[in-house]
Design brief:
Blueprint lengths: L2 H15 L6 H15 L4 E2 H6 L5 H13 L3 E5 L7 E5 L1 H21 L2
Antiparallel strand pairs: 1-3, 2-3
Helix pairs in contact: 1-5
Amino acid sequence: MKLFTGLKQIREFERRQLPFLKSVVDFDIVIEIGYAEEQGQALTLKLLFLLNIGSRTTVRRKLAELIEHGVVTRRKHANDHRASVLTISASSVKLLGRYCGTLTSVSACHFK
């Protein structure tokens, strides 16, 4: 088993391909938004705050950075025009799919 070889490959992919995910909070925000989408649920900013990922200030700041980088998109809620629904951009979903493929590949080779 080459544990650290596999971990190094994973980290290199993250640094090269996912530079916008700088912290655990960034990962958590993206995962929660993507999970809500997969479940067919609309995730609003209020619901994101209720997940207690971090302080409201931190989540708001990290979310703004993810929106600026084009990872997360914000659109008006269909039923409540005061609220915005958060989604993951199509290009980011594709990139995160490649990340999962890398994790699977490295896991199969190094973590037996």
